[in-house]
């Protein structure tokens, strides 16, 4: 019975679902602390779960939010919604930076813009990414799921590390990094080793392809906890599962790999989906409240171990070694040749 309650609380959008877990694991957006003077970065913060995070941060007095996304039309719509609900002053706290995560050079350029525009960074939410879709390669010749969902975010985080560290050194400030994972990480191949680009570039099918990238989000968070938090205890890194949420990924993108079968998710499961505000709860908790690092946090604020692979520290080390090697090889002229240290903690 308790397992069933956990499943409902973590995944389903019915009223009161988040009260089904023990009180110590409950969290509601209204409990988000005051964020005055703090600065955040949210990738994909203009729609879906990312917008839920942006909205919550703004309603709790965040000083500035950098949103990294691709579509100007989507951010314009989001800013209009913010103006209508919260006023012009809230909308002016948002800084939009157009950034395609499949373009790693653009990710670096975007990070450098952030470094020039703020002297602190308290919250980094690595949310944007590719959903359950077919196998594709980026222009770098890397599996698009891993390139966008994992590698781009490690590049962004690594380039923002000096600012994250300096912020954490100010008056015992706690800095929080959140990587969006998913229970879909359980669909990653059981023989996943993260040993070569050839392994990454196998066509596994839509679900395992996506699941492997979400496994990487958990492993990366735990890698940062082992290394970054160890050296800088005020920097916390965690992964989150949002639940089954009514987003563009589950309404539209799912029809790319499953033109007909996708209707089971987009339409058939619609009554059970969380709205975006319910879907951002675990991430907001990880971004503003938790005092722990290296956790996989499921809704509303439930730490879970994840799969056996997600608990494999050596696999995490393999992942990050391969990440450095691939990024260095594919961007050598713009990175290593220019003196990039490839320091990820």
Shape: globular
Mean pLDDT: 95
Strand content: 5-15%
Q: What structural category arises from helix and sheet content?
A: alpha/beta
Kindly state the number of beta strands: 8
The percent of residues in helical segments reads 40-55%
Largest sheet: 8 strands, mixed
- Taking the alpha carbons of the first and last residues, their distance comes to 41 Å
Structure report:
There is one protein chain. The protein has 345 residues and is of the alpha/beta class. Helices cover 43% and strands 11% of the residues. The chain is built from 13 helices and 8 strands. The chain has helices at 2-11, 48-59, 72-86, 88-91, 104-117, 144-168, 197-200, 206-231, 248-251, 263-268, 276-279, 281-288, 313-330; strands at 39-43, 64-69, 94-98, 123-126, 175-180, 235-240, 296-298, 302-304. The chain has an 8-stranded mixed β-sheet with strand order 3-2-1-4-5-6-7-8, with helices on both faces. The radius of gyration is 19 Å and the shape is globular. The mean pLDDT is 95.
List keywords for this structure.
345 residues, eight-stranded mixed beta sheet
Could you give a quick summary of the protein structure above?
The chain is of the alpha/beta class. It has helices at 2-11, 48-59, 72-86, 88-91, 104-117, 144-168, 197-200, 206-231, 248-251, 263-268, 276-279, 281-288, 313-330, and strands spanning 39-43, 64-69, 94-98, 123-126, 175-180, 235-240, 296-298, 302-304. An eight-stranded mixed β-sheet has the order 3-2-1-4-5-6-7-8, with helices on both faces.
């Amino acid at each position: 019975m308790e397992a069933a309650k956990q499943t409902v609380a973590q995944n389903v959008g019915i009223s009161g679902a988040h009260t089904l877990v023990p009180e110590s694991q409950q969290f509601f957006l209204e409990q988000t602390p005051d964020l005055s003077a703090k600065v955040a970065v949210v990738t994909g913060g203009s729609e879906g779960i990312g917008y839920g995070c942006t909205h919550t941060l703004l309603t709790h007095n965040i000083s500035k939010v950098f949103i990294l996304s691709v579509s100007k039309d989507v951010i314009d719509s989001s800013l209009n919604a913010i103006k209508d609900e919260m006023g012009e002053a809230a909308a002016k706290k948002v800084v939009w930076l157009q950034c395609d995560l499949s373009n790693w050079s653009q990710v670096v350029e975007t990070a450098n813009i952030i470094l020039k525009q703020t002297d602190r960074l308290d919250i980094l939410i690595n949310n944007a990414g590719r959903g359950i879709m077919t196998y594709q390669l980026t222009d770098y010749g890397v599996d698009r799921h891993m390139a966008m969902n994992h590698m781009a975010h490690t590049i962004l985080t690594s380039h923002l590390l000096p600012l994250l560290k300096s912020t954490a050194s100010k008056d015992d400030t706690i800095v929080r990094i959140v990587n969006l994972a998913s229970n879909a990480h359980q669909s990653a191949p059981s023989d996943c080793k993260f040993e070569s680009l050839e392994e990454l570039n196998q066509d596994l099918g839509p679900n395992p392809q996506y699941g492997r990238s979400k496994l990487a989000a958990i492993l990366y968070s735990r890698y940062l906890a082992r290394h970054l938090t160890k050296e800088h205890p005020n920097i916390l890194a965690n992964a989150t599962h949002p639940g089954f949420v009514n987003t563009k990924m589950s309404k539209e993108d799912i029809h790319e790999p499953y033109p007909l079968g996708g209707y089971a998710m987009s339409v058939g499961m619609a009554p059970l989906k969380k709205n975006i505000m319910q879907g951002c709860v675990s991430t907001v908790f990880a971004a503003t409240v938790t005092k722990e690092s290296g956790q996989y946090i499921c809704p509303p604020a439930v730490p879970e171990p994840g799969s056996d692979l997600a608990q494999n520290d050596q696999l995490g080390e393999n992942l990050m070694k391969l990440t450095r090697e691939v990024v260095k090889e594919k961007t050598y002229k713009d990175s290593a040749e220019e003196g990039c240290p490839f320091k990820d903690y």
